[in-house]
Model the fold of this input.
Amino acid sequence: VLTPDEIQLRLENLLLTVQKPGRYTGGEINQIVKNWNEIPVKTALVFPDIYDIGMSNLGLFILYETLNRRQDTLAERSYLPWTDMDSVMRENKIPLFSLETHHPLSAFDIIGFTLPYETLYTNTLCALDLADIPLFSQDRNMNHPLIIAGGHATYNPEPMHAFIDAFVIGEGEEVIHEVVDIYKKWKTTGSDRKQLLLSLSSIAGVYIPSLYEARYDDGNFSHLEKLEETAPSSILKRIVPELPPPPTDFIVPYIETVHNRVPIEIMRGCTRGCRFCHAGMVNRPVRERTVDNIVQAIEKAAKTTGFEEIGLLSLSSSDYTHILDLVEAISEQFANRNLGISLPSLRIESFSVDLMEALRGSRFGGFTLAPEAATERMREIINKPLNTNQLLETVQDIYSRGWTNIKLYFMIGHPSETLDDVREIVTLCKAVLAEGRKVIGRRARLSVGVSTFVPKPHTPFQWVACDSVVNINQKQDILKRDLRDRDIHLSWTKPEDTLLEAWLSRGDRRMASVIYEAWKLGARFDAWQEHFRFDAWQEAFASCGLDPAFYTHRQRLINEAFPWDHIHTGVRKKFLADDYLMSLQGETRIDCREHCFACGILPTFAEVRRQHPGDSWKCPEVKNKNKPQSLLLPFTDQIPDTP
Amino acid sequence: MNELSRFRIQFSKTDAMRFTSHLDLHRTWERTFRRAQLPLAYSQGFHPQPRLTLACALPLGFTSEAEIIDAWLDQSTSLDIIQENLRSALPPGIQLQYIETIDLGGPSLQTLLQSSEYLISLKYKIQDLDERVEILLSMKSILRSRRGKTYDLRPLVETLEIIKDKSDIFFHSFRTRLAARESATGRPEELLSAMDIDFYQARIHRLKLYFNE
Done:
């Protein structure tokens, strides 16, 4: 194993031969370097894509900060090298190393992977391989680091079960300390790795896949069988009862990254209940930070980082209770500082334009709205009700108040969508641009981003089949042909990219072999157009004897057992089933701040809530103690409630 | 409206900073001023930009002890305060050397710049280095092409001399002064190539920028 000095010496001669060497040097403002020899627990946090992408990830930074606050722990960063550097490192026998101290990853105690989306899976194997760590959990011994993973994609951990020793389900701020505590205690006892995994399985929210075996019935997933008596039957996600003060001392990269801004999360969760939205279902309940808290964080972040932009993060900013107070406080305090403040995910209404106007200061960007669908029928199916006239009034308002470019996000491939629904997207976009031209003439621009719906686990649409590739192509052809206009910029997702995401999203344990085979065949950087190898994935499925359509193009029975049923998000499967069946009837549910639909969060986290009363949670008081009825469907009662 | 002021700063660029490109260095300075709570002046217009000008781009991988940047501030602040605030806000790899107040209406750095002096150190042994230097200096012209254009490198090489007291780490060192005027810039990598020296086996360090007084 190379020492940090040896690694640095080898890098010295090689960095000039690769693109953007600043990705590999570390040494940025605000990085935390501790004395390696004095700290008992050494953790490496890995975002398995390049630095440029990974540096913008908030989740990893939250863990970096909280772990480094411990006296007994150090946390360093590592990202996947781009392909040019990957070759250079392999040729020169340089293992994957940390940016802070250049230690090889194999020298750390714990390696934590952040997996916010599925297309990072093959990259995770790349990182382990480049770090010289056995890819499969079962092949690791006492000398290897503990490999843990968390992030949104791990709400269905099964496709990666073979490679990860322990998954941390849900929000990591608190549970990560429990993992470190157990690890530290285990390290002093000198007992074997199995013992460590067993101890970790006692932590709420930690899932150890090797303690279970999947059973299949005629090719279908049947259930998960415990191999150890003490292993929990259900793993309930972790949440923090109240959001801690947001991290502010972000590391300032020397090179340009995808998001050149400080992210400040203003709230977590969303009460809108859009049926396709994974984040909206798994991040319940809604918890907000106070205006003071946020304004202080912006002030501190601006001072410690020098960033020229602050990005306020949330799934639905308009729903932040004190949004007007927040925006007023910000514009008062930060006017004339040439500081850009961005506010994403605004509702389609004129009030949003007021908010953006108050914030925009001297910097103008585009204005983004996400109607997701163009017809009222579709909007009812996905539970994102919106009136087309209201949309047109809002865009008119936006164009007339100085913005020249509006960006609209749509999704195609929703359940039961027809070609007519897609043609309505064209009609609506043209109407939007026409509004713009009325107000500002030929300066009006429209960007249209059209993604393709992927059914996600733990959502009301987890039962539905993906739209067929033939349909998707036909729908995209309509958009490409009919949205041809000098002033409209159309972008879309390739059907193959959507397929991969869909296979992996609802995969079972058998998918691990597919991921491994695909990786062996050269699949990596699957999220990058220039590297995506659809052929490798198809070949991998074939060599594993699995039919990809089984995972994507199959309508599930309402009582089907899912490979992710043992992961409990706090939202009951029966609630999701009811909501799905409502969508088939075109029934909608209003914002659940207005009315509780008993998704299950409150009873599941009743104790947490009791200990943390107050108004940071946005669940309304439930007056009616009786369970609301399953609206339509007696047969959803067949669904066993999550254990 | 606050009072506008202009400063000239000399700094060194070493360590990991040598892998930061010209554009990224510009941004690094902008953020440094923000951290130092020193309000940079911004250009007018649709996309206001901070008023910062670097004298001369330093290629990726080069180190330097003689970089120069002009900065305009939206207030008049004492040099001591600027110096102190910048020192505590600068990233590792940039060291402040001196700072002075400049006449607001003075000419731009680029128009004043004449030439740039480099120290080039080699990590491998070249038997006939003396000879190669002599040959190069004796040539009347050295025609080279760069980005599809042919130009004469020879007049851009103002001085070139081998440094005899060599260090422990490197086999050879030499010092060269290359023209760095707006329309005529000599590049160290071009010089190395003309002398048949491997650029990747060389460490290049800028020693000085020469300006028209």
